[in-house]
Amino acid sequence: MKQKRVLRYMIEVEHGIDNYIDDCPPIFEKVIEEEFIPAGRLVQITAVNDNGETENIDLWVPPGPTTATRLPPARTKAHSRGYLVDTRTNRAVSFASTHEMHCALDLLSNRLVIDIEDQPPAVPYLGADGRMHEHTYDYRATLQNGTRLAFAVKPFDKVESTEIENIIGRTKPNLPGFADAAFLVTDRTLTRDRAWNAKATLRALKIRNEQDCARMRTIIADAHGVVSAYALARKFERFADGLNAIWCLLYDGVIELAEPARKLVDAPWVRVYEGEVIA
């Protein structure tokens, strides 16, 4: 057995969640589940049925296409590529590398972001050779306050060879109207652990239960500082319901991970803030 699995099991035992029997509903219990939509969204329309009666029906609207100015390159052995769905805009978001996917996940799991554009229009800049060139940022994110941020994603070991920092600096005079600021992000920040937490947040949001979230808010009202996320989740009849509520409140900014650079399963601690929601 891998060392990490052993350590995680020890953490679970320490937090009292080594036994999941109570989390499973009885085999004869009648469970009524709401319709789960993995992607796209349902909209209600009015239609006339075969009997001539007017009724409201749910119509599934699939995710819209990406707005990227260029699509991911053809398949290669060294890169990963694909699409994620931004449920807020019901639109596909592309990625052409694992690092880009991690960046997209970070943006998708940030409640302050209301729109994500992959491969937005190119920004012109004056090169060292005295000629005009263009640079296409990997992502442009629009925040709730209207601020637009551009992101260039590169592996850390290729920052120097690609001269990406110099390129970003040269595009800044032409950013007005395109973005308010531009940033370089690398795998030093876009780690697999952060991406794991982002994925868990997005999964939780898909099956969000407002009653569970309200109950968790009541529970953490008596908590202060850093507390065990597992201990909080254990206050629910089903541990999974409690943990899902925690992920949703992390998204809402009511609580935050005590160690955001590590997976929650490896560092199951959250920080509870008093008063206002975390910005």
Number of domains: 2
Order of SSEs: HEEEEHEEEEEHHEHHEHHEE
Proportion of β residues?
A: 15-25%
Strands, total number: 13
Provide the structure class. Answer: alpha+beta
List the helices and strands and how they pair.
Elements: H1 3-14, E1 41-48, E2 54-61, E3 82-86, E4 91-95, H2 98-108, E5 113-118, E6 123-126, E7 132-135, E8 139-143, E9 148-153, H3 159-162, H4 164-171, E10 181-185, H5 192-206, H6 210-220, E11 225-228, H7 229-233, H8 239-252, E12 255-257, E13 269-272
Parallel strand pairs: 9-10
Antiparallel strand pairs: 1-2, 3-4, 5-8, 6-7, 8-9, 11-13, 12-13
Index terms:
three-stranded antiparallel β-sheet, Trna Endonuclease, Chain: A, domain 1, globular, 8 helices, alpha+beta, Arc Repressor Mutant, subunit A, TnsA endonuclease N terminal, 279 residues
Report on the architecture of this protein.
It is a single chain. The protein has 279 residues and is α+β, with helices and mostly antiparallel strands. It has two domains: 33-190, Trna Endonuclease, Chain: A, domain 1; 207-272, Orthogonal Bundle (Arc Repressor Mutant, subunit A), CATH 1.10.10. 29% of the residues lie in helices and 24% in strands. It contains eight helices and 13 strands. Helix 2 (98-108) packs across helix 5 (192-206). The radius of gyration is 22 Å and the shape is globular. 23% of the residues are buried. This is TnsA endonuclease N terminal.
What is this entry, summarized?
Helices cover 29% and strands 24% of the residues. The protein has 8 helices and 13 strands.
